[in-house]
TrEMBL record:
Protein name in the entry: Ubiquinol-cytochrome C chaperone-domain-containing protein
Annotated family: Belongs to the CBP3 family.
Region described as Disordered: spans on this chain: 59-79
Location of the Ubiquinol-cytochrome c chaperone domain: 149-284
Gene Ontology cellular-component terms listed: mitochondrion
GO biological-process terms attached to the record: mitochondrial respiratory chain complex III assembly
InterPro entries to which the protein is assigned, alphabetical: Ubiq_cyt_c_chap, Ubiqinol_cyt_c_chaperone_CPB3
Polar residues bias spans: 59-68
């Protein structure tokens, strides 16, 4: 159980003190191993510290008795994780909440942005051999499911729309929070994304003019708002409308798009939303990223299965 170490050592005050001071100063929280190594130095030496240590031990014992009376639900993986998260939030305090949101959203955006990442080498840039699309968009070097299996070019547009697709799914889940929390988390997500977008314009596309970057970012923000409206309409009106929104935004309404791929992406979006919905609010900072571990291409196996309404139907030859 999570509190077992504190109960045995009587030093439950150490993680709390380390978490509070580290988070309020904006530094990294001390690791459990470093706390254990410091036990010989950090033993409570004053009466106040001893009283705090005894109080923490009693709290842990009361928690253990509660777990036993409830059938050990908190000792399971889900319940124990929720309890740990709640303890962490209580230890961090209200002043650390903005930092917690900032760090968590930064990590989530980085995970979303890695799905269709690409690079443009400096050698190609210097030699002037960077490939371009018919619309003049530079093509980099990528890899992975979105580039190889779904045949999307490794461009800034592809990277942005795949990242925004993952962000949209997170935003839909965040709407279940209270109004203030939803606004804070979504604002931080969007801010981190546009910081990364501007950095990619500068590093990968050698766009040194800040004025030009800001102009492209304004256009990208308009696309983000339109994307949310289009996907919201698709979730409300059905899979056909959602597939149409994916086709227009992600695939730029190309004529050669495989409809199986569109169906797989729509199925994956529904699955990801279901998995996000199964995560408790207090566990979102730790578990939200795991909702995207199931690859969208795996949904092709489901798409290729015959529909129930067509089972047993004879194929009509014309």
């Amino acid at each position: 159980m999570a509190c077992r170490t504190s109960c045995k050592s009587g030093l439950g005050l150490l993680p709390r003190a380390a978490s509070s001071s580290s988070l309020s100063s904006g530094t990294r929280v001390a690791s459990p191993s470093s706390l254990l190594r410091s036990r010989r130095i950090a033993v409570a030496t004053t009466p106040q510290q001893q009283i705090r240590g005894i109080h923490a031990t009693l709290q842990c014992r009361q928690q253990q008795q509660t777990d036993k009376s409830s059938g050990g639900e908190s000792s399971s993986s889900g319940g124990g994780l929720s309890w740990l998260t709640q303890r962490f939030k209580e230890a961090a305090g209200s002043t650390a909440q903005p930092y917690l949101v900032y760090r968590t959203t930064e990590r989530l955006v980085k995970a979303c942005a890695s799905k269709a990442d690409y690079k443009i080498s400096s050698e190609e840039r210097k030699a002037g051999t960077v490939k371009q699309t018919a619309d003049g968009e530079e093509i980099g070097t990528g890899g992975g499911m979105w580039h190889d299996d779904f045949h999307l070019l490794p461009t800034f547009s592809t990277w942005a729309h795949v990242t925004m697709l993952h962000m949209y799914l997170l935003v839909v889940r965040l709407r279940a929070l209270d109004k203030d929390a939803h606004h804070t988390w979504q604002s931080q997500l969007v801010d981190h994304f546009f910081h990364q977008a501007e950095d990619k314009m500068d590093v990968e596309h050698d766009m040194g003019s800040r004025t030009m970057r800001q102009r492209y970012l304004r256009d990208l923000f308009v696309q983000w708002r339109g994307l949310m409206l289009a996907y919201d309409e698709g979730l409300a009106r059905g899979d056909a409308v959602l597939a149409s929104a994916v086709w227009r935004n992600l695939f730029k309404a190309r004529d050669d798009v495989d409809v199986r791929v569109l169906a797989a992406i729509v199925s994956w979006m529904r699955l990801s939303l279901m998995r996000l919905d199964q995560i408790k609010d207090e566990d979102l900072p730790l578990l939200a990223e795991g909702a995207f571990k199931w690859p969208a291409k795996s949904e092709l196996l489901l798409v290729d299965l015959p529909a129930r309404g067509l089972e047993g139907a004879e194929t009509v030859k014309r």
